[in-house]
Structure of Alfa-L-rhamnosidase:
Amino acid sequence: MKATSFVVFITSVFISFCSFSCKNTNVDAPDSLTVSEGFKNPIGFYDSLPSFSWKLPVTESVKSQSAYQIICASSKGFLPNNPDLWDSKKQESPQSTFVKYQGENLKSRQKVYWQIRFWNQDENASDWSEINSFELGLLNNTDWQAKWVGLNTAKNNIRGVRKFLMHRPQYLRKGFELSSDVVSARLYITAKGVFDVHLNGNDVSDDVMSPGWTPYIIV
């Protein structure tokens, strides 16, 4: 009877010790991942050398960050084991904001998937974060092949034309047909002023007053 009680006691102590150890070594993943100036999974991003930021989880096991690792890949399926664009390796640093990308050269229209993990004050590694992404826009003037569509206000025979004269809104419509089904598509658009785009009567974006204040001055 005493031997049985002793075995039960030892087993209980062992289970309690394992539970305590597991509780203290498990570190939740970082969250609130953003790119550069706080963008969340941006599309049409402007910078081929972005920076990354994240927040540490609010848990008992995390008091500070002692190191981090960022990985980037051209496909979601490459993460976390085969990051083909960049692997920062383990960096001994408490920095968690505006960490600069230092991987392969990125090109216009390229989509990049990325993850982050960190080590806490006890050198325990966190879980990998959720996979985030950013997609580059047109980075060079040579990538832009479109032509301006609108009223040619440079002609002298248009009455009332002045350099800073505000014209009434222009409504443009273009019909087209596709020869096959669409898997994904991107519309690259800008305007001298603001624009609102619809496709088959549906607004293509939640943005308001795009593209914002943008000067277009011919030098």
Summary: Residues 6-22 have pLDDT under 50 and may be disordered. The CA atoms of residues 25 and 124 lie 6 Å apart. The chain has one helix and ten strands. The first helix runs from residue 2 to 25.
